[in-house]
Design a protein that fits this description.
34% of the residues lie in helices and 18% in strands. It has 238 residues and is α/β, with parallel strands linked by helices. The chain has a single domain, classed as Ribonuclease H-like superfamily/Ribonuclease H (Nucleotidyltransferase, domain 5, 2-Layer Sandwich). It has a six-stranded mixed β-sheet, sandwiched between helices. Pfam families: DNA_pol_B_exo2 (PF10108).
């Protein structure tokens, strides 16, 4: 892959939590919608909607984004590839989404390609839906209405790994393991984010985890392109 093509990719990962710390804090009308949603879960016969509320963060209608980490490739004077990673984190989702939208408009061309693992099923639509909910204009890379599939500038490492096998799911952590890439799960994993956010009040810990996920994502992408992995010295957390 040519340098210019690599520099046109923005790797990203998001961390999401339930919209409220406790089920009881939800407006009554929203509780009714969650009760119906939770009734379809496998655990619904053993647990109440309140007990299942910790899972609300994976649904854009009931959750919110607390961190978006992004990474992009640049080449130094010796033509060595470098990966730069930064993150937007905030308890205020509007500010976070506005900062991300500003990054896209100010620092990247409209032709930038967004890349995430399972991004087409989760990250990209989740960001777009939360922007709509919060009244934020969608950046061009997230404007999909009326476009043909090949016109949408999204890359997905899960899709690349499937090689056309639509029934197969592989987590980023498993994919990294079999490709010889160090895991990002040394501290926490996605299932713990809601508790770390609301119980520990530790957004910084979530942010660092999210940034590590982006580093793994970019490495997986390189491997899938038949390119060498980066040394740790070439990965810069901004």
């Amino acid at each position: 892959m040519k340098h210019a093509q690599l520099e046109q990719i923005l790797f990203l990962d998001i961390e999401t939590v339930a919209g409220f710390e406790e089920y009881s804090e939800m407006p009554e009308a929203l509780q009714k919608h969650w009760n119906r949603k939770a009734s379809f879960f496998k655990e619904a016969e053993q647990k109440t909607p309140e007990e299942l509320y910790g899972r609300a963060g994976i649904y854009s209608e009931f959750g919110k984004i607390v961190t978006i980490a992004v990474g992009y490739f640049r080449f130094d004077g010796d033509e060595n590839i470098q990966l730069r990673i930064k993150a937007f984190s905030s308890d205020n989702e509007v500010e976070l989404l506005q900062s991300f939208a500003k990054l896209l408009s100010d620092s990247f061309p409209p032709s930038v390609k967004l890349c995430a693992h399972n991004g087409k099923e989760f990250d990209f639509p989740y960001i777009a839906r939360r922007m709509v909910i919060q009244g934020i204009e969608l950046p061009k890379p997230l404007q999909m209405s009326g476009k043909k599939p090949w016109e949408i500038p999204h890359l997905d490492t899960l899709e690349l790994w499937k090689f056309g096998d639509y029934k197969h799911f592989t987590s980023l952590d498993l994919l990294a393991h079999i490709l010889g890439i160090p895991s990002s799960k040394s501290d926490i994993d996605g299932s713990q984010v809601n508790e770390v956010y609301y119980k520990e009040k530790n957004l910084d810990r979530i942010t660092e985890y999210c940034k590590r996920d982006v580093a793994v994502l970019a490495q997986v992408f390189l491997k899938l392109q038949g390119m060498p992995l980066l040394n740790n010295s070439a990965i810069h957390m901004l």
